[in-house]
Amino acid sequence: MIDFHIALQTVLDNATRTKTEDIPLENACDRILALGVAAPTDMPPFSKSAMDGYACRREDTERGMKKLEVIAAGDIPKHEITPGTCSKIMTGALVPQGADCVLIVENATLRDELVFGPPPATDNIILRGEDLKKGEPVLTAGTLLRPQHLSLLASCGITQVTVSKKITVGILSTGDELVEPGHSMSPGKVFNSNSWQLMAMVQQMGGIPTYYGIAKDSLLKTQDLLMEALEANHVILLTGGVSEGDFDCVPVVIQDLGFEILFDRVRIQPGKPTTFAISRSTGQFIFGLPGNPVSSFVQCLLMVFPFLAAMQGAHWEPLTTYFPLKEDYKRRRSVRMGHIPVRINPDGTCSPVPYNGSAHQAALSEAHGLGRIPVGTDTIKAGDPMQVLLFY
Ligand code: AMP
Ligand code: MG
């Protein structure tokens, strides 16, 4: 059994980079930037008013100023501001030459055709190049593009980006007890739920998932389905069949197919039997994830997400922070790094969700994140910080 951080490092060290492609901005959400982008101009490209008001010279506001023109956003000012003059200006409009501040409209009074007001406390001008200077990096390679990044790129006039190609991921479940949702149930069976979770997760992290169905717990059946999935995918996620059960045949099958198992037991809970294997001849990867749905979710988050991100040239890890525990937490054994579903309370504390173990999917669905309990820790007292890996 190896420590989680060694398992994760093994996964990351073996990740191979995907190729890149140029795509239009509208398709770029949730993709990973492969080439950094530099600002083509100063940002903003001109000094503009932050407020509706009067562009003027600070020293003139109390003695009254003659209004020269009205400058709308998008206009080019016709007049320079000279002593004793001002121009009405709208938010976002180009600040005329000679002005050093904007007197906001709420503070201005009109008397005898002159504009008066107190000297503004701030300039109310957004200076040219204040956000970025021409040539400075806008976004660096490896950025996971979210809507705010797309807007930033668009603000620079960029319509196309170079991103890492998506990764083909084959997904299959193993287990004689599994029945696909929508089919009739019989005693002793459970609906296959993992595959739906994993397909959605793969999509979130730049994968193209393809589902191959359920393999019965036999060497031959598992091998057949796995071979089919390997024909068309770079990475395989399979669930179940990697523990100590009499019918857990996945390790044998993947070795028979020429894969080398780099680890198969991790000091982590849930998810101890998580298995990672690579084929040196084809460059393909297999993750054997535990069958219990909470375990496969946690391992996909902790291992597969960083791996898929690394294949696309990005560093990814769950957003992690600490919250004080609302009530005492205690666990029976502390030999593995533990993860439990937790909720963040409105008062800034966190609370474990009532949790019956790694088959308890309802608990996971209520959670805002995973509380992480270090190896060797069995108790965390109320008020003490708990590390939380947030879902987002
Ligand atoms: P295994 O890892 O194959 O021993 O499975 C561990 C537990 O997870 C068993 O209770 C299985 O019935 C359950 N399980 C395995 N695969 C799935 C699946 N795809 N969906 C839901 N439960 C599963
Ligand atoms: Mg099984």
Helix content: 10-25%
Listed once per kind, the bound small molecules are: adenosine monophosphate, magnesium ion
Q: Give the name of the CATH superfamily of the largest domain.
A: MoaB/Mog-like domain
What is the CATH third-level topology name of the largest domain? Molybdenum Cofactor Biosythetic Enzyme, Chain A
Based on secondary structure, the structural category is alpha+beta
Please outline the major beta sheet.
Answer: 6 strands, mixed
Query: What is the CATH architecture annotation of the largest domain?
Result: 3-Layer(aba) Sandwich
Uncertain segments: none
Mean pLDDT: 97
Structure description:
With 392 residues, the chain is an alpha+beta fold. It folds into four domains: 2-17 and 166-311, Molybdenum Cofactor Biosythetic Enzyme, Chain A (3-Layer(aba) Sandwich), CATH 3.40.980; 20-43 and 130-164, Alpha-Beta Complex (Molybdopterin biosynthesis moea protein, domain 2); 48-126, Beta Complex (Molybdopterin biosynthesis moeA protein, domain 3); 320-390, Beta-clip, CATH 2.40.340.10. Helix content is 20%, strand content 30%. It has seven helices and 28 strands. It has helices at residues 4-14, 147-155, 194-204, 219-232, 250-256, 293-311, 361-366; strands at 20-24, 37-38, 48-49, 53-56, 65-71, 85-89, 101-104, 109-111, 114-116, 125-126, 137-139, 160-164, 167-174, 178-179, 190-191, 207-215, 235-239, 260-263, 268-269, 275-278, 285-289, 319-324, 329-330, 337-344, 350-352, 369-373, 379-380, 385-390. The strands form eight sheets. Strands 7-4-6-5-9-8 form a six-stranded mixed β-sheet, with no helix packed on it. Strands 16-13-17-21-20-18 form a six-stranded mixed β-sheet, sandwiched between helices. Strands 19, 22, 24, 25, 26 and 28 form a six-stranded mixed β-sheet that branches. Strand 20 (275-278) and strand 21 form a beta hairpin. The radius of gyration is 29 Å and the shape is elongated. It starts with a helix and ends with a strand. The model has no long low-confidence stretch (mean pLDDT 97). It binds adenosine monophosphate and magnesium ion (MG). Adenosine monophosphate is lined by residues 173, 175, 177-178, 190, 192-195, 239-241, 243, 245, 290-293.
